[in-house]
Design brief:
mainly alpha, 3 helices, about 0% strand
């Protein structure tokens, strides 16, 4: 993943960290489709790669948010 891609994903994560997870997932899918669609020579292979990347990013985001909310709840209640 290029530096620009990482920066954009970081920006999206910060923008929607406290917002709607589904909105973030939708924007991530749109971003991945438009940025990687140009680099793939085979359309179906590109779609498969994008779905794998989206699934990995979504699960990583979910794990991060779960960890953050667990830590936040533990620190605020104690």
């Amino acid at each position: 993943m290029s530096v620009t891609s990482r920066a954009m994903l970081s920006y999206l994560f910060l923008l929607f960290d406290g917002g709607n997870y589904l909105v973030y997932q939708f924007l991530l899918q749109v971003y991945v489709t438009f940025t990687n669609g140009r680099d793939c020579r085979v359309k179906w292979r590109c779609l498969a790669q994008n779905k794998v990347k989206l699934a990995a990013a979504s699960s990583q985001l979910y794990a991060t948010r779960l960890l953050h909310s667990t830590f936040w709840n533990a620190s605020s209640s104690g």
